[in-house]
Amino acid sequence: MEVCEEPNSDNLKKNKPLTPIRILRGVMILLVFLSTAFMYLIYFAPIFALALRLLSVHQSRKAISFLFGHWLALWPYLFETVNGTTVVFYGDSVPVEKRVLLIANHRTEVDWMYLWNIALRKGCLGYIKYVLKSSLMRLPIFGWGFHVLEFIPVERKREVDEPVMLQMLSSFKDPKEPLWLALFPEGTDFTEEKCKRSQKFAAEVGLPLLSNVLLPKTRGFSVCFEALHNSLDAVYDLTIAYKPRCPSFMDNVFGTDPSEVHIHVRRVLANEVPASDEESSAWLMDSFQLKDKLLSDFSAQGRFPNQRPDQEELSVLKCIATFGVVISSTALFIYLSLYSHSCFKVYVGLSFTYLSFATYYKFRPSSSVVGCCIGDSSKEAKNH
Fold first, then answer.
1. Torsion of Cα atoms, 94 then 96 then 97 then 98, to 10°
2. Which of 36, 102, 141, 343 is deepest in the core (most CB within 10 A)?
3. Contacts of 298 (CB under 8 A, 6+ apart)
4. How far apart are CA 319 and CA 315, in angstroms?
5. pLDDT-based confidence at residue 113 (cuts at 50, 70, 90)
């Protein structure tokens, strides 16, 4: 059963045609996003993800969250303000909470980008991190960003992934440090073929037959929740659907799809989710059965239940200000790189080398290195 509605006569009226103006605007948007991402990473990453991190991991994360949170805000503004996509929220209201675990169904390659729309409204966009396929870390430029923002890469092999996840999650346990950790338990985007394989496996092992989502891979959720549950405020169980059809990345760039994004929110306090492996797996399976029912109802009715009356619109003024600041600072960085003193060219070259090295070798410095050096120096001074 399709969750994204098939293009009937009504939906075709909503679908936005790919006009020459949209193509031109899309090319300009791609250039803006690539150039701003490249320049922000080149100029800020060595300062805040390397130098400052050697002194304080907490302060490094705080600075990176502030700077790149403003860059990430370009995307929700693009969706809603520029492309005119309507985002509709249902279910529980979301208070301003700094430490949450988000789980969502995975319908298309850009589901994860629409989680930014919620985080931006709550002032938490810079804190969001994802568990994502390690292959995405190899994307040009954006792979650097994923590394600097400390996304957790996985190979989808338990024996390989679990030690990596536990190591990174152990650095996120400080309850004073904001964290929005997002996870797609299905592990891959939904297709009819994958759904049939998932249903076949479910029938063989006696698990529920789901029509609109795949069976969740429970171990990843259990590892995340078990490692963090003592410091989390809540778990946000999100169910996402689109009209008139599921968008691709290029649909977003050119502004052709979607016309509407529907997000149902179920907020569960962290202490209400069982922490043990077996019980948390059962809880997740129940949650996906609920998702399956919600998506079936959406297919039939075109909406989720309990639409929120307090739909918060993004500010056009903030949108313009954010674009202005990011683009003007990028223009300054380009000028410094091309036409200013040669030391800026050297800095760009060194930064490029560092980002390539750090991303490839998964290198993240720790303030403990400086702490050890200071500790050793103080011991030597005492001995003398």
1. 140
2. 102
3. 3, 241, 262, 304
4. 6
5. very high
**Distance (Å, rounded) from C-alpha 74 to C-alpha 326?**
9
CA distance 206 to 225: 25
Q: Tokens for 330?
A: 């990028």
6-59: per-residue pLDDT in tens? 444 344 445 688 889 999 999 999 999 999 999 999 999 999 999 999 999 999
Distance, CA of 62 to CA of 67 (rounded, Å): 9
What pTM does this model have? Answer: 0.89
Which runs of E-coded beta strand occur in 134-243? 152-154, 179-183, 234-243
Can you give the three-state secondary structure of 261-282, one letter per residue?
EEEEEEEEEHHHCCCCHHHHHH
What are the structural domains, with CATH classification, of the chain?
Answer: 85-314 (3.40.1130)
Return d(Cα 184, Cα 114) in angstroms, integer: 13
Give Dmax over CA atoms of the chain in angstroms.
85
Is residue 79 within 8 A of residue 221, CB to CB? The reply is no
Distant-in-sequence, close-in-space partners of 341: CB < 8 Å, separation ≥ 6: none
- The answer for residues whose C-beta is within 8 angstroms of residue 186's C-beta and 6 or more apart is 105, 106, 213, 214, 215, 216, 217
Bridge-based pairing of strands 128-133 and 179-183 is parallel
330-341 pLDDT, tens per residue? 999 999 999 999
Closest CA to 358 of 136, 88, 46: 46
Which of 116, 136, 134 is CA-nearest to residue 182?
Answer: 116
